[in-house]
Amino acid sequence: MENNKEFQENEIEMNENREAEIAENENEATQAGTDASSKAEEHTEGNAEENAEVIDAAHLQNEVKRLQSLADDCQQRALRTQADFDNYRKRTLKEKEDFAKYASSKLITELLPIIDNFDRAIAAAGDSPEIESFAKGVSMIFRQFEGVLKAEGLEAMEAVGQPFNPEFHQAIMQVESDEHEEGIVVEEVQKGYMLKDKVLRPAMVKVSM
Predict the structure, then answer these.
(1) Alpha carbon distance 118, 204 (integer Å)
(2) Residue 64: how many other CB atoms lie within 10 Å
(3) What whole-number distance in Å separates Cα of residue 82 and Cα of residue 63?
(4) The pLDDT value given to residue 186
(5) d(C-alpha 138, C-alpha 168), whole Å
(6) φ and ψ at 202, to 5 degrees?
(7) Which residues contact 170 (CB under 8 A, 6 or more apart)?
(8) Which residue has the higher pLDDT, 179 or 131?
């Protein structure tokens, strides 16, 4: 009986030791699983952080490109605006200069018929002794008048003998001429005038054919 009791006690002790060993192994396995899970979570979190950093870098790069494009566009607009303003300023300045340069053109244009009449009156007087003194007086007045207009930049054109130029001449007739080649001004019907470098009135002429 005592041997059986001792055997039973040994068996119980062995079972307890085996259960304790199994429980310990289970705890170790559980702990290992927990550690592996923690490492996996840490690895996942690390990858997520790296991916987030990559996404942020790409976003920042795209934003830099967008802002650079916007800055370039603004710079181009500013340059175009500056160029437009410079052109406007130059054009306005030229218009002012031209206005000052040709301010008297309207008045002088209205005076041209008077000059024509002076020319006709002096030509009609000729060498007649009866009106010689009167013609001289008119001629003096006319020369004084011409001097004033010349000081304003008025110049009579020299048309006869010059090649016909539609910018300076207005042809009213073509005539045959043995003295001139074709297209040469042979007669001036009405004088043409320049005001500085601008044609104030083209000369009315006859042209050889």
Answers:
(1) 18
(2) 10
(3) 28
(4) 92
(5) 29
(6) -70, 155
(7) 192, 202, 203, 204, 205
(8) 179
Question: How, if at all, do strands 203-208 and 185-190 pair?
Answer: antiparallel
- State if pTM tops 0.70: no
Q: Amino acid identity, residue 116?
A: D
Nearest Cα residue to 31 out of 15, 47, 39:
39
| Residue-wise pLDDT tens digits, 48-105 | 566 666 677 778 888 888 888 888 888 888 888 888 888 888 888 887 777 767 777 8
| 193-195 sheet: strands from edge to edge | 154-156, 193-195, 198-201
DSSP string across 89-115? HHHHHHHHHHHHHTTTHHHHHHHHHHH
Amino acid at 39: K
Per the model's pLDDT, the better-predicted residue between 73 and 127 turns out to be 73
